[in-house]
Amino acid sequence: MRTDTLKAVANPRASRRVFFGVAALVFVASAALTVIGCMSMSSMSELPMPGGWSLSMTWAPMCGQKWPRVAATFVGMWIVMMVAMMLPSLAPVLWRYHEAIGRTGVMRARWMTALAGVGYFFVWAVLGVIVFALGVALMTLALRVPSLARAVPVAAGCVVLLAGFAQFSGWKSRYLACNRTLTAMRSPTEAWKQGMRLGVHCILCCAGLTSVLLVNGMMDLRAMAFVTLAITAERLAPFPDRTARAIGVVIVIRGLWMLLQAS
Predict the structure, then answer these.
(1) 3-state SS, residue 219
(2) Which of 45, 105, 128, 137 has an alpha carbon within 20 to 30 A of 187's alpha carbon?
């Protein structure tokens, strides 16, 4: 009886160690690849634009590159970056899901949890495709319309300012509450749908912070670190609404500073 009890206690602990060990390895690998990608992009020259800003070559093909390859490179970098940024706050949610379906068997629970995680990041990959298309469209317009290019710094400051104000909204609180759980569905299809549903809620919840990242430079490691810490803090903190509002204060100050520089 005592041996069975010890095994029952040890197995969940061992499973927890394996789960978070794998999550840590995935995070380290994705973070390292993100840093390498950012460093390679920062070594490339940028195109000076009217209004005092520079256009990153992230949105333009290099010599001899075709647009499909540029898009695939961008989306690949986007997915790796999102894994590094979102995994610290996603891992506890996936672990609770793993625990909830653990009675169906260890291997099945791992498979279902992995499927939910893949569904989650699939949604972020789709967003990456949309971001790339919008970025290329904005780049094309800015190159063709100088007056629009001159307005970009002011528009960027307004976007950051609005993102800061969004941190105080009830909309933010509602979606922040939705990002802490996954329903323990036991079929592969439902696990995939649950992961996608969580991904959609997460994208809506992080819309402001994602905008801050894009406006300040997707390949800027400082902006990336700030957004990662902000997302993780507001998801895992005991008082998520207070944390989100504190982050909002920082973003509002940043937006005001950007508008001041633009003027």
Answers:
(1) coil
(2) 128
